[in-house]
Amino acid sequence: MKSIRNDNRKPNRKNFNEQLKLFIQKCSRFLNGITFYFDPNSSHNVLDLIKIIKFLSENEVAIYELNDNRQNIYANCRNLKYFSIIPVTTLVRCASDQRFMSLYSGLTEAIRFLFSKCNQLEHVSLGDLHELIHSSDSFLAQFFKTGVHQKLQCLHLSSIKGDIVRYVPQRITMLEHLEKFHSLNHLSLDFDVLNTKVISILSKIDTLQLLSINVHRFNRNHPGISSTAWSRIVTILPNLSVNLNLLHTESNNFQIIIDSLLNTEMPLKHFKAYYLEFKDENSSTILCNMLEILSRAQMNTLESLTLIDHLNSPKNHLKVVTPNVLIMLCWRCRNLNNLTVIGYETTDRDIIAMARLRGESLQSFHFPSCCIQLSEIFTKYNYYSSISNESFINFDMANPYSQRSFRDAVSLPLKRNWQPIPTNKIPEIIVTGFLPQTTYHRTILEQKNSHCIH
């Protein structure tokens, strides 16, 4: 599989185009997969991407020598099975930027035409680019025309919004035909397009093993998903797992998430929440209530939980509710092996308790040092005290002895050397909160693509 990475250098455009076209013509017969890395905010990158895709869509021989039935046989992309776009960041241009929007219209059409020439596709990922995902219906229609719908194994139609303030819900009308995708085993969608009917349709895909869901600032008129729909799909597809990503989701929308997703038989495997937005005074109670319900309803399936927020003002939401909801989650969820919490204050007692409950089964256990509050719990004999009224000090401000004693106390049950994430090792994006989408865009894409063989 080839990976093509665009950058902002400006080579001789004419020579570049000729050499690239010649390269694709010579190598196309061996090309079965391609991943494009590009900057979605660079017009040069987008134009180059369009040119490459057009070259892939061309034919080895003159098109006038072929009839319509034979054109795809000689297309440069005839053996393509894996097609993936990975933006290096999120598109942050305003939707009113007509020049840029016309560029993406051209990119959408180039991709649609490429799909019209590909008969062997098994994996399609559109990089969670909102501007491309809005054309999902035209892509799905093309898959039916070429017969690819019977071969596709991985189809990623979820999105990550570049403009998190001006939110336009996604619409895909052709989802009612998804049951005809007989080989599909991994599907990614936005919560916007999911409802009880769609879940019922997905239950008819016998091969489906993984469903990834992105939740944004969804339409407040969303009909929700009935708990019976999840009960039914789990019965029909016992091997199904769900990955759930909350992206800038507002706390006043948590209830529909609880009712439609968390407090159901949905087989949740991975839960990630990035930059949750709290609008209520009792936001601590709201967050902890959601995590409490999650830990009860998903105790048999949950394997990983990630909470990430800005570090410029760590939240104390997880400290003020007793018992600590993360401790209860570690106690209930017997398959939990990955826990990452960034941007939320956590005490030494709580972290040690989590480590003791999960032990060496915790393959990854991440907390930043600047969010850890140390108390006077270690005596000169390194004994863990149960005193509850000590004053707290930030880990980074504590003396080396206290830091080492705390690290040792966590390392012991994990049976490996453990230390918190140093503040200077945390990406500046998380610290400052500038363009927060960049924090999770690449992570979510890599998680999706890792489940697909290519």
TrEMBL record:
GO terms for biological process: positive regulation of protein ubiquitination. It comes from the Eukaryota. PANTHER family: F-BOX ONLY PROTEIN 33. This is F-box containing protein-like protein. It comes from Euroglyphus maynei.
